[in-house]
Design goal:
By secondary structure, the protein is of the alpha+beta class. The chain has one domain: B-lactam Antibiotic, Isopenicillin N Synthase, Chain (Jelly Rolls). Helices cover 14% and strands 36% of the residues. The chain is built from three helices and 16 strands. The strands form four sheets. It has a seven-stranded antiparallel sheet with strand order 1-13-10-15-8-5-3. The chain has a five-stranded antiparallel sheet with strand order 4-9-14-11-12, with no helix packed on it. The radius of gyration is 16 Å and the shape is globular.
Length: 197
């Protein structure tokens, strides 16, 4: 990949994905995780910004189904199990991307800034990430080598997180993304994946 992100020719029902997210908010609060604040900073006054989410997959060796913030050295679908959040639209993602691992949905509230960084430079095997925005706003952007970009809700992106990147949600609404990883050897398979989820 030459750039940080490449839009893939894959479609999905955005309303179905958003309905899945609302189901998590309504009935799966007990499985929600919150990232420690040391992972980001914020600028909006009178707002306590958070990065939260739900794990759709978690390492097989882990007993807590709600936590996805584990060792990123655990790579490959065979080392992961599905959590109780693997239903509906999430199950469709697992079917469409059979090599996906460390799948989760993440919510960046207004005011969250993730400073520019490179993901996991020293992991054993090269990985890429798929990002599927389902809720965003025009002021939720990414800072990458190419400049500032916006990932549109309803699109599917292949991203190279070994390139420097940061994010900022300067809008007034949450930014919600599905994310998961894949190994470099699966890159061509993913690039050739088309159709509807």
């Amino acid at each position: 990949m030459q750039y940080f992100s490449t839009q893939l020719p894959i479609t999905f029902d955005l309303n179905e994905a958003v309905s899945y997210y609302h189901e998590l908010e309504k009935n799966y609060q007990h499985l929600k995780w919150t990232m420690p604040e040391l992972g980001f900073r914020h600028t909006k006054e009178n707002i306590t910004p958070t990065i939260t989410g739900w794990a759709i997959q978690t390492p097989k060796a882990v007993d807590e189904p709600h936590c996805m913030l584990y060792d990123t050295n655990i790579q490959g679908r065979e080392f992961y199990k599905e959590t109780p959040c693997a239903f509906g639209f999430a199950q469709k993602l697992l079917t469409k991307f059979p090599t996906a691992f460390r799948m989760y949905i993440t919510v960046n509230s207004p005011g969250v800034i993730v400073v520019p960084h490179v993901d996991n430079e020293n992991i054993p095997r090269r990985v890429y990430k798929i990002i599927i925005p389902i809720q965003t706003n025009n002021d939720a952007t990414w800072t990458v080598d190419e400049g500032t970009i916006h990932l549109n809700a309803g699109d599917v992106y292949l991203v190279d997180t070994l390139k420097t990147h940061g994010t900022q949600n300067n809008g007034n609404t949450d930014r919600v993304h599905f994310m998961f990883e894949l190994l470099a050897e699966d890159l061509e398979l993913i690039k050739n994946t088309t159709g509807c989820i």
